[in-house]
Structures are given as structure tokens and as C-alpha cells.
Amino acid sequence: MKMSMYQASVPVFIRSLNNLDRILDKGAAYATSKKIAPSVLVGDRLFPDMYTLVQQVQIATDISRIGVSRLAGVKPPSFEDNETTFEQLQNRIRRAIAYLETIAPEQVDGSEDKSVTYNFQGNSITLLGIEYLQKSVLPVFFFHVTTAYNILRHNGVEIGKKDYLGLI
User: Fold this and answer.
1) Helix %, strand %, coil % for the chain, to 5?
2) 18: closest CA among 72, 119, 90?
3) How many CB atoms sit inside 10 A of residue 4's CB?
4) What are phi and psi of 115, to 5 degrees?
């Protein structure tokens, strides 16, 4: 059976965003149990020149939402980047999931041969849909989900591969 563009994108994003939501639950619980101000964790980063946990979650929700929208040929909803708490980040994730759930397979399937043009670091790039998904959207998404996980793990939150992957 051949995997469709929809199958390679929307369910993958929804699953990983749900896992990220549960990881943030553990981060919030950890902050409470260790009497750490939640703002310390959501504002933390792995290195001074890297993005904060807040920004990692924002980018993960943006790339999944915008990437799928480009493949589907629809305009994505705009999200303000104003989250400062675990709860607000989780609400953002849930809004992204709710949006992705509105995308039907037929909107994305067949987009593998469609040209997608986007800006990356000041450069205009045009790729076929399959290349866009494989070379940009999926790697960028997983980079930021993984980095969000790593920020919390680095701070002592007891999470592991099972949390990252979710139920298999």
C-alpha cells in the first residue's frame, strides 16, 4: 500500500503534538513539585543563542499548521505568539490540532507534484510538495518538538522516549 501525502503529514503532526502536550503536562507538574516558577522552564533554552521552550512550541505548531495548509492550498489560521505559561502553550497545541483535524485527506493528497514556494532565511525556495514535506516541514517540525523535549529533560523533568513517541 502506498502512503499518501495526507498520511505522511496530518496524522503524524497530530500524534506528535498530542505527545508534546502530555510532555508539557509533565513539565508543569515537575515545576509545581519542585517549587520552580513555571516561567523559568518555559523561558529556558539549551544554549544562549537557541530559542526558548515557548518559541520551540510556537514554531512546531506553526510549521505543522502552515506546512499542511500550503500543501492543501488553503490559508492557515494566524496564531499570535504571546504564550508565557504551560497552559497557554498547551492551548496553542490544541488549537493547532483542532485546525489540522479540519483538513481532509483529499485536500492534501495529490500535492506531491504541486509546486510550493516559501521563504526560508530570506531566500525564496520552490519545491515540489513531496520535497517540501520531506526536506522542510517534517525535519523542522521534529527539530523543534525534540528541542522542546530536550529543554525539559535537561531541566530534570522525568520524561523519556516513551513520552516522546507516545503509545505505539
Assistant:
1) 60, 5, 30
2) 90
3) 16
4) -75, 135
A 10 A CB-CB count for 24 gives 24
pLDDT tens per residue across span 126-135: 999 999 999 9
CA angle centred on 15, ends 51 and 69, rounded to 5°? 70
Statement: 10-165 belongs to CATH 1.20.120.450 = yes
- Model confidence pLDDT, tens digit, residues 39-83: 999 999 999 999 999 999 999 999 999 999 999 999 999 999 999
The C-alpha cell that represents 112 in the structure block: 506531491
d(CA 60, CA 68): 12
